[in-house]
């Protein structure tokens, strides 16, 4: 399996203060969404949270849903369902690739 470098959108380089400015959420709201397992920042060696552009987009989606009256528990359940669908798609792709490789005698590296 080839090593794939993370897209610039997925690199965790943005501080919580900048994320707060970009999203309009307070730092406390952002930490709360982390506590509710809706967002997963990385930590720097000094313990500072680092976010990606994808995290910023996710936070905006969460804020919109909260504004529409959706509870954090419901958002989390939707995220779990979505991740399950993506995992199933990836598994199907790997199985199909394996079948094609076997059919044509290609060795996976």
Automatic annotation (TrEMBL):
A Pfam family: MerR_1
UniProt keyword list: DNA-binding, Repressor, Transcription, Transcription regulation
Protein name (database record): MerR family transcriptional regulator
Location of the HTH merR-type domain: 13-81
Single GO term (MF): DNA-binding transcription factor activity
Organism expressing this protein natively: Peribacillus glennii
Gene3D superfamilies: 1.10.1660.10
